[in-house]
Amino acid sequence: METSNDIDKIQEEIISEFEMFDDWMEKYEYLIELGKDLPIISEELKTEDKLIEGCQSRVWLSSELINGKMDYRADSDAIITKGIIGLLIRVMNKQTPEVIISNELFFIKAIGLQEHLSPTRSNGLLGMVKRMKLEAIKSLNLK
Amino acid sequence: MTNTFNVLEIREEFPALRQQVYGKNLIYFDNGATSQKPQMVLDAINHFYSKENANIHRGVHYLSQRATTEYEAARTRIQKRLNAKSSNEIIFTKGTTDGINLVASSFGNMLQQGDEIIISAMEHHSNIVPWQMLCERKGLVLRVIPINIKGEILQDEYDKLLSKKTKLVAITHISNTLGTVNPIKEMIAKAHSVGAKFLVDGAQSIQHLLIDVRDLNCDFFVFSSHKVFGPTGIGVLYGKEDLLDQMPPYQGGGDMIAKVTFERTTYNELPYKFEAGTPHIAGGICLGKAFEYLESIDFKAAEAHERALAEYASQVLETFEGLTIIGDAKNKTSVVSFSVKDLHPFDLGTLLDKQGVAVRTGHHCTQPLMDFYKIPGTVRASFAFYNTMQEIDQFVIALERSLNMLK
User: Fold this and answer.
1) What's the whole-model pTM score?
2) Could you tell me how far CA A82 lies from the centroid of its own chain?
3) Residue from B133, B128, B132 nearest B97 by CA
4) What is the domain partition of chain A in residue ranges?
5) Under an 8 A CB cutoff, do A77 and B344 touch?
6) What is the ipTM of this complex?
7) Which residues of A touch B346 (CB under 8 A)?
8) What is d(CA B88, CA A18) in angstroms, rounded to the nearest whole number?
C-alpha cells in the first residue's frame, strides 16, 4: 500500500465527514466528541519537554518511531483543542517520517478550522503541527 | 433606566455593532480588550487623511497649520475633560503601556538604589513588568499589596508597606479581570502622606468613570485611546506639570528638542519634551473626537447603565450550577469574569464565538492574579454603555447551549 496516498485519502475522508454538518455548532459538537474519545495520555508523559505552551490552551505531544512509522500521542487541557488533535493524529499517525515531512495538511482549511492553526489563536495547535514535523525529521536523522 | 439614556439610539452610532458573525447577530462583550468606534470618530479618520493630512508643529503651509491646530485642540479637549490644570500636562503616548514605560524610564531615572515601588496583586502585566525591569536596572525594591478573595486590595497591608522608602505607588483604577473599582483617591492621599508619587492605570476606568485628576490628586494618570472609543496606537499620560518638568526626556528625536548641536542639546518645553518624532496625528485628533462624542452623551446615565448590565449578568450567571464568578468586590463595574467547574475557558469561548458572542478567555494578562485564584483563566464578559439587557439574555442562552455540549 502506498502511504502517501493514504495520508491524502484520510484527509479526504475527514473532509467528506465534515460536509455532512449544516452549521458551525454541529461541527463543534463532533469535535467535542472526538476530544472526549481521544485516549488520555498518562500524567507522567505530560512533562515540560512535551509541553507546547499556548496562550489559551496547552498541548502535550510525545512521539516514537515504531517499525519505521511515526506514533504520536497528544493531549490538551481544552476539549476542542483535543478534538482537533484527534483529527491531526488520525491523519499523521502510522505514516513514515518522509510522508509527514512532505505532506501538506489541506484538510484543516477545507473543513474551516484554519483559524485554530493561525498564530493569533495561540492554542498550541500551530506549535503542535510544527513539532509533529520536527519529530519526524529527528527520527529520520536517527535512522 | 433614565429617560436621557436611550441605548438603542446610542447603538445607531456604532456601525460595528450592526453586523452578523457566523450568521448570528454580533454580541460584543469584549469591551475590556477594546471598544467599538462611533461614526463621528470613523468620519474624522477619513476626513483627516482626505482633507487635512500634513505633518505638525513644523510646516509653514496651510495644511500643516490646520493639522497642528486640530491636534492641539484635541489635547485641550482632553485636558478639560480630565480637569487637568494645563494642556502641558497632557502627553500623547502610544497607549497605556507606553505611558507606564515612559514614567518607569524617566521618573525611574530619578530614583536611587533601595527606593521602593508599590503595586497590587491585581495589576495587568503592563503595570508589573516595566517596574520589574526598572527595579532590576536601578536596584529598587518592588512591593506587592495582597488582595482578598473578593478581589479587593487589602488596605491594612497597603498601610504596612508604605514607608519613607516608598517613592511611587502604581495601581489600576479598575481591574481588567475582576471589575473591581479601587479606592484610589484614599490610596493616593496615603501615598502622599509618606512623600510618594502615585500613578493611576486608567486603562479600564477612563471609559466608565468621569475622571477628575485634580480631585483625585494623582501624580500620573495613563490610558489608551482605543478602549475609550478612539483609534488604536495612541494614548495619554497625564502628569503634574512641576513633576514632568523635573523629569528627564524619555526618547530623543525630532520635536522634543529646543536646539541641537553636537556638543549639547537643549530640550523643548512640555508637553513636547516627551513627544519625540512625528506622532500619531490622526490618532490624537480622533481621540479628541471620541472625547467630543462622550461629551454629547449623558455619561452619568451611561455609567449607571453599565453597572446595571454587570449586575444583571452576575445575577443570571450565578444561577448556573458549577459556575463561579471571579471577583466579588463591593465596588465593581462593567466586568463579569467566571469559570465553570471542569471546563476550560477556551472551549467555552470558542463555542460562544460560534454563536456570535465575543468574549475574552484566558488569563487577561494578569497571570499572578490567576495564580492567586488557582485557575488557568476565566471567561470574561466586559460591557460598554452600548450593550443591552437583551444581549445578556442572548449570551445566557448561548452559554447554556455551550455548557450542554461540553457536559
Assistant:
1) 0.93
2) 9
3) B128
4) 3-142
5) yes
6) 0.86
7) 56-57, 78, 80-81, 123
8) 61
Residues 6+ apart with CB under 8 A from B114: B139, B140, B141, B165
Nearest CB to B354; choose among A25, A79, A123: A25
Looking at the predicted structure, is the pLDDT value of residue B130 above 80?
A: yes
Q: Amino acid identity, residue B214?
A: R
Q: Give the separation between CA B282 and CA B50, rounded to whole angstroms.
A: 11
pLDDT tens digits, A111-135: 988 888 776 656 677 888 888 999 9
The rounded percent of chain B whose pLDDT value lies above 70 is 99
Alpha carbon distances (Å) from B198 to B117, B190, B242, B385: 10, 10, 14, 29
CA–CA dist B52, A107 (Å, integer): 49
- Kindly report the CATH number that applies to the domain delimited by B42-295: 3.40.640.10
CA distances from A33 to A82, A98, B26, B220, B407 (A): 10, 31, 27, 52, 11
Examine the pLDDT at B3 and tell me if it is beyond 60: no
Domain B7-30+298-406 class in CATH: alpha beta
Task: Pinpoint the residues of chain B covered by CATH 3.40.640.10.
Answer: 42-295
Mean pLDDT of chain B: 96
Under a CB-based contact definition with an 8 Å cutoff, are residues B402 and B363 in contact?
A: no
Q: Which residues contact A76 (CB under 8 A, 6 or more apart)?
A: A35, A57, A58, A59, A60, A82, A85, A124
Q: List helix spans (H) across B110-263.
A: 129-138, 155-161, 184-193, 213-216, 241-246
A111 chain-B contacts, CB cut-off 8 A = none
- From B21, which residue of chain A is nearest by alpha-carbon distance? A24
Strand partners, A70: A65
Interface of B with A (CB under 8 A): 22-23, 344-347, 349-351, 354-355, 361-363, 376-377, 401, 405-406
Question: What's the Cα-to-Cα distance from B237 to each of B142, B178, B188, B404, rounded to whole Å?
Answer: 22, 24, 17, 46
Q: In what order do the strands lie in the sheet with B335-340?
A: B323-326, B335-340, B378-382, B360-362
CA gap B70, A47 in Å, rounded? 57
Helix (H, G, I), strand (E, B) or coil at B251: coil
CA gap A82, A37 in Å, rounded:
9
In the Cβ-directed half-sphere of A91, how many Cα atoms lie within 13 Å?
24
Judge: domain A3-142, CATH 3.40.50.720: no
Neighbouring CB atoms inside 10 A of B368's CB total: 15
Ranges in chain B annotated CATH 3.90.1150.10: 7-30+298-406
Q: Answer whether A29 touches B (CB < 8 Å).
A: yes
